[in-house]
């Protein structure tokens, strides 16, 4: 009989088992079945533990041949007796535990306890670590909002901080509360317990066991192919094959929740085996201009691919977690020598989650070291404070968003007599969205304009389904067959002089009858960027401010700061958007733009 008056060997019902040895701490329900673990220990050790005042906080019992038996608590470790452990005591435990798998781990059926063995060279067991497994309900309150997003989550932390406990609770919440199909890859039977029947702590989630640890990556793929899961839960991703399997699963649209060895993301970046979990790292050789602009060496490290896990959680302590909401941004910042600014989540005395930033104050502009070793601070408009970083919510482009939205609403949809929304026709009688056949014009630029301005336009490769043709003027003039086909099918041709963003933008808006010369044409800088980097946005913002604050109102020419050829091309296109002229002058690397009034 155990402390609750029940026979430990008698099978309990699901509800009774979940309630046995249950305590509440800080709003969390803890289920441990401690008596079942004590039952496998030798009689003298078990009696001492049952009377120990801190028994409920027990972490693990360590028994090594010829040494004193040791117990470990959160506050520290202590010896249970001054009598060394004998081979008979070890055999007593092994007989009651059962089979040890290839990773020298065993468990107790229908419990979460884990018994790990240490063997000598001949293979005999000379040490045991009996670890208490607890199902803690409510432990993921710190990241409950992140779990609901449906993004893949990677848990990091030192051993014993509670990664597996959190993983178990996440699986239960996803399966029971969010009604998702969850499959747990349980290599060591630590998540769902030993035996064929999984522990009630995982809820409705299903568990797949792994016969040998080295086959975990195969079982991960098998789970996706055979059991149609929406979520895969993995504990201890530790090999390159497992990292590759995780990426394969993520690319199939399945949410991943897993743990990996390492305290912080920096550990994964430096680990060649697991770096693929955060996107992988590759060496990139920069051009002379780019290296000079960055103030770095020509060979730098950059992220190779999108991360397998979108969110990373560093479990510093049981109630203090660091959350990286975007692993991609964190890795990029670290590779560029910047400190990321993740969330710090803790729990207060009222069991409420407190979210702060690791660096509450915005960081100062970074200084960069030139090739001569001098520290170069930002110069030009940025240092004078006249130029502000582009804010998409407060930029003039955003102020005109309502104008574009209204035009789109008027030209694309209108309410009928009973208040329903119906499709209308375009300016030439065609149904919207407008199907455009591009000829000689950059498809990428057209798609960028459509996406940024949210135009009701669809590109087509079939001229039979086209409502209009957008072509380069020189190509259209030399292609008589194209003009003949368009004439016979009554498809209008809109020609542009050059394949630039301003001309493509005006042509598309002219097709939709949206190009009103009387309305100020605000520049949306997103139209002119290629990668959307801070450097591109800064250069375009400099050009925009120069045009709107100096060239147009004062009629004076303006010279901009030196930029790379790629960025100067973007600035030229932005100036062309305002129907102004600009030239590049000077020698590299000091070649810069000069903008002239109309």
Automatic annotation (TrEMBL):
Pfam families for the chain: PTPase, R3H, Spore_III_AA
GO function term, MF aspect, one: ATP binding
Biased composition (Low complexity): 388-398
The keyword Transcription is annotated on this UniProt entry: no
Domain R3H, residue spans: 534-598
Top-rank taxon, per record: Bacteria
Alphabetically ordered keywords of this record: ATP-binding, Nucleotide-binding
Residue ranges of the region described as Disordered: 369-398
Record InterPro entries: AAA+_ATPase, P-loop_NTPase, PTPase_dom, R3H_AAA, R3H_dom, R3H_dom_sf, Spore_III_AA_AAA+_ATPase
Signal peptide: none
Protein name (record): R3H domain protein
Organism, as annotated: Coleofasciculus chthonoplastes PCC 7420
């Amino acid at each position: 009989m155990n402390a609750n008056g029940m026979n430990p060997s008698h099978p309990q019902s699901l509800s009774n088992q979940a309630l046995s040895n249950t305590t509440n701490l800080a709003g969390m329900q803890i289920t441990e079945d401690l008596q079942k673990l004590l039952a496998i220990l030798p009689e003298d050790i078990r009696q001492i533990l049952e009377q120990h005042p801190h028994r409920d906080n027990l972490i693990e019992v360590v028994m090594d041949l010829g040494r004193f038996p040791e117990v470990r608590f959160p506050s520290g470790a202590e010896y249970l007796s001054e009598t060394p452990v004998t081979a008979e005591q070890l055999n007593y435990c092994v007989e009651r535990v059962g089979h040890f798998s290839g990773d020298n781990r065993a468990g107790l059926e229908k419990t979460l306890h884990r018994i790990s063995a240490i063997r000598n060279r001949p293979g005999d067991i000379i040490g045991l670590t009996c670890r208490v497994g607890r199902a803690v309900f409510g432990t993921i309150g710190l990241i409950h909002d992140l779990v609901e997003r449906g993004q893949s989550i990677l848990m990091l932390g030192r051993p014993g901080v509670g990664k597996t406990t959190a993983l178990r609770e996440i699986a239960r919440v996803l399966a029971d509360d969010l009604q998702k199909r969850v499959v747990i890859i349980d290599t060591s039977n630590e998540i769902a317990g030993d035996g064929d029947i999984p522990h009630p702590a995982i809820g409705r989630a299903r568990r797949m066991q792994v016969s040998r640890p080295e086959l975990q990556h195969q079982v991960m793929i098998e789970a996706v192919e055979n059991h149609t899961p929406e979520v895969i839960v993995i504990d201890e991703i530790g090999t390159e094959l497992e990292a590759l399997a995780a990426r394969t699963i993520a690319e199939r649209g399945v949410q991943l929740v897993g743990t990996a060895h390492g305290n912080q993301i920096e550990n994964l970046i430096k680990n060649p085996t697991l770096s693929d979990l955060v996107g992988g790292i590759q060496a990139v050789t920069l051009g002379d201009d780019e290296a000079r602009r960055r103030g770095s060496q020509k060979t730098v490290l950059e992220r190779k691919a999108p991360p397998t896990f979108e969110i990373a959680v560093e479990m510093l302590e049981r109630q203090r977690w660091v959350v990286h909401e975007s692993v991609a941004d964190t890795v990029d910042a670290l590779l560029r020598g910047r400190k990321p600014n993740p969330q710090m989540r803790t729990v207060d005395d009222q069991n409420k989650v407190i979210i702060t930033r690791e660096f509450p104050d915005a960081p100062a502009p970074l200084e960069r070291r030139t090739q001569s070793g001098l520290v170069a601070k930002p110069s030009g408009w940025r240092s004078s404070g006249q130029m502000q970083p582009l804010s998409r919510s407060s930029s003039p482009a955003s102020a005109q968003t309502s104008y574009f939205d209204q035009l789109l609403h008027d030209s694309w949809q209108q309410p009928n007599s009973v208040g329903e929304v119906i499709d209308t026709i375009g300016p030439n009688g065609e149904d919207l969205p407008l199907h455009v056949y591009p000829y000689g014009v950059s498809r990428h630029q057209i798609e960028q304009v459509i996406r940024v301005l949210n135009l009701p336009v669809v590109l087509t490769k079939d001229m039979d389904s086209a409502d209009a043709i957008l072509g380069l003027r020189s190509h259209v003039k030399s292609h008589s067959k194209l003009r003949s086909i368009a004439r016979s099918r009554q498809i209008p041709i809109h020609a542009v002089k050059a394949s630039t963003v301003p001309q493509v933008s005006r042509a598309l808006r002219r097709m939709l009858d949206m190009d009103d010369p009387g309305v100020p044409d605000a520049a949306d800088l997103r139209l002119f960027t290629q990668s959307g980097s801070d450097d591109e946005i800064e250069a375009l913002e400099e050009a925009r401010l120069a045009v709107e604050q100096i060239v147009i109102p004062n009629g004076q020419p303006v010279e901009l700061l030196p930029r790379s050829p790629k960025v100067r091309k973007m600035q030229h296109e932005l100036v062309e958007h305002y129907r102004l002229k600009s030239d590049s002058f000077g020698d590299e690397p000091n070649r810069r733009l000069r903008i002239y009034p109309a």
